[in-house]
Amino acid sequence: MTENPIPPYEHERAKKNAFSRFLDGVEWLGNLLPHPVTLFALLALGIVLLSGLFAWMGVAVVDPRPAGANGVAADGMIRAVSLMDGDGVRRIFTGMVDNFTGFAPLGVVLVAMLGVGVAEHSGMLSAAVRSLVLGAPPKLVTVAIVFAGIISNTASEVGYVVLIPLGGAIYYALGRHPLAGMAAAFAGVSGGYSANLLIGTVDPLLAGITEEAAQLIDPGYTVLATANWFFMFASTFLITLIGSWVSLKIVEPQLGTYDKSKSDGTILDDHNLEPLTDKERKGLKWAGIAFAGVLGLMALTLVPEWGILRNPEDGDRMDSPFFDGFVMWIFIFFIAIGYAYGRAAGTMKTDRDIIDAMAKALSSLGLYIVLVFFAAQFVAFFGWTNLGAITAVTGAQFLVDTGMTGPTVFFAFILICAIINLSLGSASAQWAVTAPIFVPMLMLIGYAPETIQAAYRIGDSTTNIITPMMSYFGLILAWATRYQKDLGVGTLIAMMLPYTLFFLTFWSIFFYLWTFVFGLPVGPGSPTFYTP
């Protein structure tokens, strides 16, 4: 009687190295935490209690923003605000519903999923995945997923809503661990958030904040939206390379062979391993036609001078309703290609089929919606109490106190930005608070605002994937639990931690070499140094 062969990844799991044991420890410690919903509820309660303590102690920091700026107190201080007094309790009770319904990712996810549900339940996504990946070299699939994740940042939230769950589906179709596919996509979308071949929606936003901070030192200084384009363009290939290597050499072997019994059973379909039928090929052909039609419509609203979705004030294409409302394009895109596929393949015939598909898609988000309710309260409380801003300013002040002036100061700067990002997840919110400290400080020791901004973006991006404060962390967790019902926060953080460590290390070194060894500009017309 012959024994069953041991799967290849089990051999690697049997030979645990120190790093693997470290990740196991992180996972074990993280999974000691309660269910994510309970965790966010406890965190929200903890913020309320801490706010009362810190307000009673008079905790405050000097606000780095100029006097008279929006949100700056008359005395120029950021003080801890209590939620345990009468005003705080009333604010909690009256703001709870608005916190939930106003939580930015919730609306984006629900609207996008209405469209994605049509494409999924028509069978289009399954057919498209099978046509793309079955028989493809596994390593190239991983590279393509990481690269696509980075590029998806041009279209704002599309990577979180579409690409990350699709990464899991692609890996499952190939007979690989679906969580490894989700991890590769998550690393590209969020860990490499600031890298891209194109200028994205975040570029003009950050440039505007940097310019305001720079003008505290030099009132006439301007920062363009393309300030970091050269460096971010090159970083796309670096992050793709590192993300793919970490996926193939660390994350996937660490996960081992996938056990289907751990899934919820509703998203795993062995049909994913079958070749396409003639009807499916016909459906994909018509989906392709619909795809081209939507792209043409998008171009008509943005490219011509009279494009209705360009900025109505100055005609700008980047800072425009086109990108501000990109979730609507996701909605239209997936309904169009999903229904075109369904009509041609015979899986959709009437409007009722579309409605049923939308309803099924939203029904799968029950856990996410529950989690969002408590996460939204925590995030709102954190902002109301000023604890996030106080944490950011305190961390920034530490860098000031070190007294470093050489280029190596950027290693400390990037690390501090990465740490601050763990508690203040929004790129623009964090930079709005810390830029008035970092930009003037580093300008005064001789570095240009464009260079400072490029370094900040490294720190901000690399810890997105390990902090529950990142807006879409709950969504990723909800998707992952569909493949592994007992998945905890610790498992997700341990899975993504290698990407953070490698991205942070090698991206920082790359920045140092690019800027101070090879003397290359971070963007067109962007100086490296500044003369006060």
Structure described in brief:
The protein is built from 22 helices and two strands. The protein has helices at 8-14, 18-31, 36-57, 86-101, 104-121, 124-133, 138-151, 158-173, 178-191, 202-214, 229-255, 278-302, 321-324, 326-345, 351-363, 366-384, 387-402, 409-421, 427-444, 449-462, 473-483, 489-517; strands at 60-62, 77-79. The termini are far apart.
Largest beta-sheet details: 2 strands, antiparallel
Strand content: under 5%
Order of helices and strands: HHHEEHHHHHHHHHHHHHHHHHHH
Q: Tell me, briefly, the overall form.
A: globular
Which percent bin holds the helix content?
55-70%
In round numbers, the mean pLDDT is 83
Count the beta strands: 2
Order the strands across the largest sheet as they lie in space: 1-2
Low-confidence stretches: 1-14
Assembly type of the shown chains?
Answer: single chain
Count of individual helical segments: 22
Give the helix/strand class: mainly alpha
Distance from N terminus to C terminus (CA atoms, Å) equals: 80 Å
Our Rg estimate from Cα atoms comes to 24 Å
